[in-house]
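Worked example 2:
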Amino acid sequence: MYLFIETWKPTQAWLHLTKEERTNYVTAVGEAIKQLTDAGVEIEGWGLNDDDTDKNNGFDYFAVWKFPNKELVKQFEAMVTAAGWYNYFEQLNCSGIITTPQQVLGHSINL
């Protein structure tokens, strides 16, 4: 299983859209999300980034997804790009195989 974590905030292009244009775009995103969940992708959670988070990364939103395999992660990334998401949102991502704290910290020790 893979985790995919994304954080994002709107760009000026998003802010310049009308409410109706934003609604239409979000409706299309919702349809894409349904396709993903039908394919076995799980939404672990979405949220608003608390302003008082220590070491806040400056992004407004976050989502955590669980993917059954890397192929679906890559399909998701391609879908996001094709949908023009990065025209409307500045975003940072990270993803990888779900593992344990011991394995991650062990990797850090062995650098």
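The mean pLDDT is 96. Residues 10 and 89 are 4 Å apart (CA to CA).
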